[in-house]
Amino acid sequence: MGYLLTTCCYIAAFSPSVALFYTFIAHDPVRIILFFLGAFFWLVSLLFSSLAWFGWSQIVSNSFLTPLAVCIVAQEISRVGYFMLLKKAQRGLNKITEQGQVSVAPGVSDLHNARHMLALVCGLGMGVIAALFYTMNAFAAFSGPGTIGLPEALQKGYLDPNRAGKFLPLYYVLSAQLLTLFNVTWTIMVWDTCHKISRIPSAFVPGVAAFVSHLLVSYLSALNSRGFYVPVFSVQFLILLICIAYCNVIMGGTIHSFVNAIGQSFVDAATLKHLRTVLEERRRRTQQQSVPDEPLTERAGPSSSTEMT
Amino acid sequence: MRVLYPVAFCMIFVGINVKLTQPAETTSAKVIYGLFQSYDSHDNGMIAFVLMGFLVLTTSLGVFCYKKRFYKAIKLYIISNSIALLLIYAFFHFHNVAQSQSLPISLPTAAFLTLNFGCLGVISLHWKSSRRVHQFYLIMLAALTALFLINNLPDWTVWIAILLISVWDIIAVLTPCGPLKLLVETANRRGDDHFPAILYNSSSYPGTPETTRSNSTQLTQFPSSATETTPTPQTDTLSATSLVNHRFQEVRVVEGTIRLGMGDFVFYSLMLGNVVQTSSVLTAIACLVSNLVGLTITLPIVTLSQSALPALPFPLMIAAIFYFSSHVALTPFINECTTRLVLF
Predict the structure, then answer these.
(1) DSSP state at residue B36
(2) Which residues of chain A lie closer than 8 angstroms to B339, CB-CB?
(3) What ipTM, to 2 d.p.?
(4) Which parts of chain B have pLDDT scores under 50?
(5) Are B342 and A138 within 8 A, CB to CB?
(6) Domain extents for chain A?
């Protein structure tokens, strides 16, 4: 039972990130490396902020919100640092490849012109590791000999501040999804600022928006421990939607196209477009296979000879 | 990239195995069995130093044998190592796993399974096999060595040993008269690509997109690796006296081929196993990621500088920073966040 619940939680919590990973990252090794680097940068920021928390908690007892701000600042700084590192690496690689050698990491040079894709890849790395760190302890506790808060919450039917009863796994799953997607959007925003700030002075807007929304989301979630789960999550999802729309605008879309795309995706999901395309491709492949091309005949050659012997 | 997958695989394998063999309730206060007879923390440093001395000795001996062309001795040593590990230690280890998972496996079944596993391993390592199987058994060898060390060393000894070995790695590879440098130079001078070091061969650059070399390298690499299988598997891992010597921890680039010494595999996964044993899964993941990232940072430097570099110190240093700080600050912070459901 516990293991089943944990597995379900993991699947549900990481399904958006897995989908993004498979569509954008998995086919390119360089992107996987960048993904891991993003995770590492997030870890470093977490390390610094947790050290700050440790120092702070020695001085002021029972204060959590100030270190949270430090944590957020550290994360944004790490994003900026990662951006600068990537720029430096790209410049260095360009310098090397100009000398006529083969590029050490061709993918990085290729991604030079696709900065939003780069931001998505790295942000997804950050988001996944954040969600993993956020939920792993809780999920491990779910898998254990007992489920947190369950019998008591069922019997008494009231909300313990720190234990949301039977809906606790759902809240963790939702938080993990939010965290993943939010990290992607924040990275896109911050990197857009970093990219433009030297030329256009008014380009600080996306970065500031990312920072403010990050603060807002974090401090809203601090209300969770008082039991306001439903309003907090609805507001957070609203913020996420706004962030995604804003990222769409940054990438060159308009609000109209965004709404259109969402409507289209709903229609596709309702009419099982994915399944249709898969079937279509399979049909096409079988049609291709009916006309055997050269490699097939080559491969068929030795087997037929063995049959003859 | 080609190197990162096996390293990750090895580390995760060791982590899972350590988790499996670990009894459910004891997280600390490990009882130390066996060879070294150290039940108190006094001897920890001593053990590490003994280990270190043994390592230096065997490294120098191996290089000496190689210089004097005593190939037979090296080969014998390696074969005995791999047999001891893959057959005997694998048997004991799987016995342990089955016991702690309370799986009732009869003795003949277990013997049959390990015999299959080990014999295939020995054959594929020392004779010929397909490349995948060969690589798989190289990884298994490293993982089993790491498991052996974890199960037999006290917690702190592992860290001291890792520290010492990183230092030794730097000395052996970078100083002008270091044995590994001598080895690499001799091999280069003789021009044989397959000097008896145990090296994980990846047949590509770290970052080449896989789509471009899906077919061509397969065809070109396979014969060369097949010819290499006989001398390559130098598993400087365990002797019959069951001690370690990891001679060849270096990353080497030969014509775009990255080679990672098996000793690196062993020590990465040794560290990860120790982390899994002594702390939470969270720390383990942090260490895994930081280790892989350290390796990714090391590899381009190797490709750029075109020389052998020690691959151990940098990743292990990053991972150690994470490990120790996570004990102090990281895990409590995360716990705080998680219990309050505060997004960060």
Answers:
(1) T
(2) 162
(3) 0.74
(4) 25-40, 193, 195-197, 202-256
(5) no
(6) 2-253
